[in-house]
Specification:
165 residues, mainly alpha, 8 helices, globular
Amino acid sequence: MPRPKTKAELLDLSQKNFRKLNDFVDSFSDQEQHTDFPKGTLNRNIRDVLAHLHHWHLMFLDWYKVGMSGENPDMPAKGYTWKTLPDLNRVIFEKYQDTNLETSRQLFNDSFNKIQKLIEKHTNEELFEKKRYKWTGTTSLGAYLISATSSHYDWAYKLIKKVKK
């Protein structure tokens, strides 16, 4: 499916890729779901991948809250730049090491639902008009949401598929 250009397309693709990812995880046995990936990736298992997605949902929700209040959010996070994403992703990875897969899945599902509700409350124009909000810079709110949802879920699906071959 092409990159979403409307609210309906954004909701559809984010939900479709969310379901695809969850269905894919469900296709593995319980033991396979808890087995570590071969060495070579930061996220070492399905729990890590889902926790990563959840945390990026939370970061987006924070950017949104701060940005919509008229302030400039720390993006991607306080003390990090887009060039230091590997360092930030390592911190995210470490944060969830004491979280089990079941909790990680619940957190991911809950934050997904929060993002969906946020999308629902906006119009097409609010989502896809570039430069509408100062905090989104030259892009649109929708572009950030695509990155935080459908595109990120697709990345996760492909990563799990690659390492589970």
